[in-house]
Amino acid sequence: MALTNEHIKERLQQQFGEQVSEWEEHYGLLTFKAPAEMNLKVMQFLYDDEELRFRFLTDLTGIHYPNRASEELCVVYHLHNMIDNIRLRMKIYVPVSKPDVFTATQLYAGANWMERETYDFFGIQFIGHPNLKRILNVDEMDYFPMRKEYPLEDSTRIDKDDEMFGRGEL
Amino acid sequence: MVEIPEGYSGEGFHATSFDKVVGLARKNSLWPLPFATSCCGIEFMATMGANYDLARFGSERMGFTPRQCDMLLVAGTIAKKMGPILREVYLQMSEPRWVVAIGACASSGGIFDSYSVLQGIDQVIPVDVYVPGCPPRPEAILDGILKLQDLVQHESLRRRNSPRYKDLLSSYGIQ
After folding, report:
1. Fewest Cβ atoms closer than 10 Å to its Cβ: which of A31, B7, B71, B105?
2. Does the distance separating the beta carbons of A164 and B108 come in below 8 Å?
3. Sequence ranges of the domains in chain A
């Protein structure tokens, strides 16, 4: 029997009960939310299970939802079962004041650079990561540029010559 | 062919001042070092190619080592992370050296008013000629190089030793 989204959902609910929630299916891609401290347990289950076999991490990134109180930052995992060619999306949420997430590098070696990128742009601290430092931006950067917490035009910037860009005092 | 500089001529000789001869020689044998990162680089490739033929102006071949070149052509967006590398390339060129910023990005950051993009290469190295355009056509790049040739020809031989030039370099933290 081919693996279906309904069956995956059933198996996950069997295993984790009410802890996995917010089920959605956008364009047939099964999406759910897991508690942040359970991310490795859920992924390990998805990896080890003889039926589910989600053994490839396609993508890992962050999202900032400034309006979700005390769970502003989201980490999204795209997992792929290469044998049955089924994908799923797992989201975990952490507060922006303490953005700590367990690293997935022990399970998926490919998570290494993707977690560095997510740290670089969203400031998510991946606990246990072997080398958590910026990967794309300059090392001296002291902010996380993809967070939705900056005004569109920052009047304090000094790296633009305002006079030449029409932003100077009129 | 170049025009004979002003001077005294007679049968079998021509006497003129040294800086005119040096300026003429430098002007007509600029060695370009292309530092191309994006679409302006493609336009520059067309400029080098047979249709526009940069070689007509004395820049026969690109040098891909800064140590042999005297004209740095920065074509394209320079990210902040690329800034120190560009600076290193500039530092490895020997004097006299000239810099052309090709296109809006190299000149000012262009449309990339962004956290990751250097807002003009003149934040890290001094620039002699700016070529506007996004990207500039090969004619514009040629025009920029002709403008630079003009600067090169009329540059005083003592300019690179002048306090003003040293101030310029030290304002970039060089030397």
Report:
1. B7
2. yes
3. 15-137
- Domain A15-137 adopts which CATH fold? Beta Polymerase; domain 2 (3.30.460)
Q: What is the pLDDT of residues B6-20, one digit of tens each?
A: 889 999 999 999 989
B132 touches chain A (CB under 8 A): no
Cβ–Cβ contact A160 with B under 8 A: yes
Residue of chain A whose Cα is closest to the Cα of B124: A159
Residue carrying structure tokens 């910026």:
A134
Name the token pair of A140: 């001296």
> Could you read off the pLDDT of B122-150 as tens digits, one per residue?
889 999 999 999 999 999 999 999 999 99
Q: Which CATH number fits domain B29-153+161-171: 3.40.50.12280, 3.40.50.1440, 3.40.50.300, 3.90.550.10?
A: 3.40.50.12280
Question: Do the beta carbons of residue B72 and residue B36 sit within 8 Å?
Answer: no
Q: What does the pLDDT look like over B37-80, one tens digit per residue?
A: 989 999 999 999 999 999 999 888 888 899 999 999 999 999 99
Determine the residue type at B142.
L
